[in-house]
Design brief:
Length: about 300
């Protein structure tokens, strides 16, 4: 069973070019399924029937797993068994016609324009860390890139003269995103006065580095944004994607077209971007209710 999972993960990495985080998720979910099969004394993944897989999904639900988590596990199993069928390891796909549980559409939390201003104004002073933090937050809101994309930026990925950043999203897909003048100014100041003091190894290519001069981690950034949100007095729950969600919503509120926002966010499917139109419609209703004399 383990060798088949390894073969599948290798296929996802080499032929489909999926990101490491996605590969880890597939591997983790499938290994959990293997553990379930062993407990059920199903010794061969190729012998798992439709009923066994349905029992597994029920097992996840009984353990209190969220609907989204159960759907993700089923998606992993569907991909895995489709691969086994294609490679002729099995003659029949036990996941065929199995439907994912319906997900509740949860709207992402966003910050208002004023809250974004308060957050972005928190890093103060000319010390290296403050200049770096200011540059990171401004760049994140200016571009809407993912935190994982932000921390993977190298010096060569940003062009301050032309005003764009080149980043690599899911599946290592490259895209070019414009950068506004304020974010460019903050990044430039960080490069001139902050990064040069943080860097220990001149060969380091990472744009944003920690106090040890090495590439900043996602966890490191997470601590930074939580610190500034608390300092700004923002009571809303902040996630690493909060500025990304706010970026998309504020663009649409100010007349940007959906296709352009989709391209900047790096969404493969426009239906993913459409979630933000629900937020802007809610905002329109709020404005109408406050402004119309007969609302």
């Amino acid at each position: 069973m383990k060798s088949l999972v390894e073969e599948f993960i290798h296929y996802l990495a080499v032929e489909r070019g999926l990101a490491d985080n996605t590969l880890d998720s597939y591997n983790r979910d499938l290994n959990q399924f293997m553990g379930f099969l062993e407990k059920e004394q199903v010794k061969d993944v190729q012998k798992a029937t439709r009923n066994v897989i349905m029992s597994y999904l029920l097992f996840l639900q009984k353990r209190g797993r969220a609907t989204a988590t159960v759907s993700r596990h089923l998606a992993a199993l569907k991909s895995f068994y489709h691969f086994l069928l294609r490679e002729k390891h099995i003659e029949k796909d036990p996941t065929a016609n199995l439907e994912s549980p319906k997900l509740e559409k949860k709207l992402p939390r966003i910050l208002s324009v004023n809250e974004v201003e308060m957050l972005l104004n928190q890093p103060m002073g000319n010390d290296s860390a403050a200049l770096r933090d200011k540059a990171m937050l401004e760049l994140l809101y200016a571009t809407g890139i993912r935190v994982s994309e932000l921390i993977q930026l190298d010096l060569s990925h940003i062009n301050l003269d032309m005003g764009y950043v080149r980043c690599f999203g899911k599946g290592s897909k490259e895209r070019i995103v414009p950068v506004g003048s304020l974010a460019r100014r903050c990044v430039s100041e960080y490069l001139q006065k902050g990064r040069v003091k943080l860097i220990k190894n001149k060969a380091e290519q990472a744009l944003f580095v920690n106090q040890h001069g090495r590439r900043l981690t996602r966890q490191g950034f997470w601590k930074i944004i939580k610190k500034y949100a608390k300092r700004a007095g923002i009571s809303k729950q902040i996630t690493p994607h909060t500025l990304r969600h706010s970026f998309a919503t504020h663009l649409l509120e100010n007349g940007a077209d959906l296709r352009s926002v989709q391209e900047m966010l790096g969404h493969a499917d426009i239906t993913t971007t459409q979630i933000y139109t629900h937020l802007t419609k809610g905002r329109l209703r709020e404005v109408y209710a406050k402004s119309h004399p007969r609302a």
